[in-house]
Write a structure and sequence with these properties.
It is a single chain. By secondary structure, this protein is mostly beta strands. It folds into three domains: 98 residues; 81 residues, 3-Layer(bab) Sandwich (Phage tail protein beta-alpha-beta fold); 45 residues, no CATH class. Helices cover 11% and strands 37% of the residues. The protein has three helices and 18 strands. Strands 1, 2, 3, 4, 5, 6, 7 and 8 form an eight-stranded antiparallel beta sheet that branches. It starts with a strand and ends with a strand.
């Protein structure tokens, strides 16, 4: 693991790998069509430690050079005093960073005509180029499905528009290391094998989503809801169907009220007998 932070102070990217808190491993949170988030802690136990500032660029990668997360600190680090060490006071700094989308979210969407009969990938590329032309690499953005009509609102952030476009096209987007990708959902497949030596079922954790919903549609089997009444006046000759579709009745000279209940129980209340 390798951690580099650029505080934009003229020093360039600085290696902070040795300062990572060993008791709290870095945590990368990825959600579908949401900006990535990195949570980590640094231990400052030497006088020359430079505290990363708000807006610093942070890169977390593997030892082979593959980037796992790239983004920017969105708030000043929160610190904790841990005591006194061999080289002076020791502090823990808790950092929270968001993905590269934060650069686009800081820009306001310009007023523009709606996208009509254009591919979702084309609309996403256009929104990106309108905000930061030439900054993001969009070669990995696929066209996916065609959107009949979409009107971008200046009141929403770029990431909100990207999530809406991806939802309509059944796609997923991601921004990493200055490159933007956009592909159909399910393009990446991850296989899990119980026989794998690294497989640990105890590490599986399920986190419930937000249960507050505004518009819910429930699908299920049809249940009887109607309470039907039919009125008959028999003349001893006429054969007529029931309005409720329950069959054909031949009534003598009498008056009857038939109630059809959902459970299928027929109740006949005689008004008068022959």
């Amino acid at each position: 693991m390798k951690l580099q932070i650029d505080n934009f102070d003229g020093r360039g990217p600085t290696d902070y790998t040795s300062a990572i808190d060993a008791s709290r491993a870095p945590k990368v949170v990825r959600r579908l069509n949401k900006p990535d988030e990195l949570q980590l802690s640094l231990i400052a136990d030497r006088p020359d430690f430079i505290v990363p500032g708000n807006g610093a660029r942070i890169t977390l990668g593997r030892s082979n050079g593959e980037d796992v997360f790239t983004g920017y600190l969105t708030q000043a680090p929160a610190f904790e005093y841990l005591g006194w060490g061999e080289r002076g006071p020791v502090y823990r700094y808790n950092l929270v960073a968001q993905g590269d989308e934060v650069l686009l979210d800081r820009k306001q969407i310009p007023n523009s005509p709606p996208f009509v009969d254009r591919s979702a990938g084309d609309a996403l590329r256009q929104l990106t180029e309108d905000l930061l032309p030439g900054i993001f690499d969009t070669t990995a953005v696929q066209d996916v499905d065609t959107i009949a009509h979409y009107a971008p609102s200046p009141q929403k952030k770029w990431s909100e528009h990207a999530a809406e476009i991806a939802l309509r096209a059944r796609a997923v987007y991601r921004a990493l290391n200055g490159a933007l990708s956009f592909a159909p959902v399910g393009a990446s497949i991850y296989a899990l094998s119980e026989t794998d030596a690294s497989f640990s079922p105890e590490s599986l954790k399920l986190q419930p989503a937000n249960g507050l919903l505004n518009d819910v549609t429930v699908f299920g089997l049809i249940e009887p809801q109607a309470y039907v009444k039919d009125y008959f006046v028999g003349d001893n000759l006429t054969l007529f169907p029931s309005r409720a579709g329950t069959g054909r009745w031949w009534m003598r000279s009498m008056q009857a009220q038939v109630s059809i209940r959902p459970v299928g129980v027929w109740m006949i209340h005689w008004a008068s007998s022959p």
